[in-house]
Amino acid sequence: MIIHLKACVALAFSFALAVGATVYANAAEIEEFDAIFRHGLVVDGSGEEPYVGTVAVRDGRLSVLKGDAPNWIAGMDTDAAGKVIAPGFIDLHTHARADLMDPQGSAMTNYLTQGVTTVVIGNDGDGAVDITRRFTDIQEHGAGTNVVQYIGHGALRRAVMSRTDRAATEAEIATMQGLLESALQQGAAGLSSGLFYADGSFATTQEVIELCKTVARYGGVYDSHIRAESSRGVGVLAAIDEAIRIGRESGAAVHIAHIKVLGRDVWGKAQEVVAKIQAARDQGLRITADQYPWIASSTQLKSAVLSKEWQAGGSQVWRARLRDPATRTLMLEDMRINIDRRGGPESFLLLETGDARWKGLRLAEVAAIRGEPPEVAAAHLLDAGTVRVVSFNMQEEDIGVFMRQPWVATSSDGTNGHPRKFGSFPRKYHRYVRELNLIPVEQFVRSSSGLSADILGLKDRGYLRNGYIADLLVFDPNLFRERASFQEWNRLSAGVDYLMLAGNLVIDKGTLTGLRKGKSLGPCPGSCSVVGSNGISK
Ligand SMILES: [Zn+2]
């Protein structure tokens, strides 16, 4: 560490004058920093026991010390007694692309106030194929947080295939591999898939394995919204098996997005899912997951209630099918079953509707007002335009089973209309650390920082360690909580006192400073070398 000479000499001199030459040795160790946080509870991202200590920042890098550091001095010297000092959080699953492109939205205040300093975009198979261009577009307005990208499997299919409602040919897979390789070289953290969604759902497992072989060669991660999270389609357990197989046969690290057991038929099955993943981990497979701490998911009503085969061909085609007496009866029956599976019509809250009258109501209420069965009311809503719903389809007990696993990270899956976009990290802390005592604070912090950095392959973030980049969070353990709810989904969270991106204060004494210091992060931006199966660069 460099000792700041001028300060050192001046102080040493005055000390020597005041109390004699014997203190000269101590005074010589005076170190000057840009900022210091003292007496805080240091929770360093490793999952190890927190301790009271000092965290300092100089030139955007961290210095960390157990206990007091009387010889450290700084212009900004903050007493953080009673506060938690943690690495800035990393959100592994967001839908922040549109916000990042928007002059206002790109400030990312909803993430900063959760303590998040880095977001991942391009999840669910939707990530841009041209990584460099997306990074450039994002930087146009300045980003409030750092950004990591995945390239999307669905986007690759759309770029290469004339129609995506079928399996890819060998030639198409080879073309996709070329684009994928280029994206990984440009700093993509890996490949995301949405095998549940239309574009990805028509892919065979083998197609994904072939693409993941390329991911594995670059030491990247395969991040998947798996083929099923409920009893629909292949079912959640078979979908987990598929993800494990993809990892095993390709050699890529596997990451399960927003892990859950969704709907009545699979409630209570979290333990079974965990056992499958644990068994694969015990055999040496690198497999992890992320999770948002809410019992409701959010998606399009179409995706929630219409089986894939009825969605094929695009919205005009399926809407025509829904009106056609020849197919309508079968589709309504399909919708009736799916509505029931997710917990019944009461469990759907309508966020966005083509016909504004129904916005904010439950599907059950729409059905009652119209005097129709829920599936007929749903068909009516779908016919009138795009419908987004919050769907209450999980049980807190299952959420707890997943959350306790040391390989489950925190994410928001933030989308408009759902409070998870504004309050996921504080909610996990407030509800599951403080209220329910389900996990200790060190596991909460690890799952939100160090673990996430490890999953993405970020080398010098996610931990409070000497020399690491100063993405730094100080929060008040008594006040850190979400204020967003299903009634008011877009209220900023409370309790973050300080937040730094590479040593720049973006929240100062609880107030957003307006600085936009986000960077484009890649595990190896610009010059990724091929890595061996052991993850070590060759
Ligand atoms: Zn998803």
Description:
Strand 11 (221-225), helix 10 and strand 12 (253-256) form a beta-alpha-beta unit. The two termini are 31 Å apart. The chain folds into 3 domains: 5-82, Urease, subunit C, domain 1 (Roll), CATH 2.30.40; 89-295 and 394-521, Metal-dependent hydrolases (TIM Barrel, Alpha-Beta Barrel); 299-392, no CATH class. Strands 1, 2, 3, 4, 5, 18, 19, 20 and 21 form a 9-stranded mixed beta sheet that branches. The chain has a 6-stranded parallel beta sheet with strand order 9-10-11-12-13-17, sandwiched between helices. The chain has 538 residues and is α/β, with parallel strands linked by helices. The longest helix has 17 residues, at 325-341. It contains 21 helices and 22 strands. The model is unreliable at 1-25 and 525-538 (pLDDT under 50). Helix 6 (153-160) crosses helix 7, helix 9 packs across helix 10 (236-250) and helix 16 packs across helix 17. 37% of the residues lie in helices and 20% in strands. Bound molecules: zinc ion. Zinc ion binds next to loops.
Could you provide a short overview of the structure?
With 538 residues, the chain is α/β, with parallel strands linked by helices. It has 21 helices and 22 strands.
The CATH architecture of the largest domain can be given as Alpha-Beta Barrel
Shape: globular
Q: Could you tell me the strand content as a percent range? A: 15-25%
Number of domains: 3
CATH fold type of the largest domain:
TIM Barrel
Residue windows where pLDDT falls under 50 for at least 5 positions: 1-25, 525-538
Q: How many DSSP H or I helices?
A: 21
Query: Could you tell me the mean pLDDT?
Result: 92
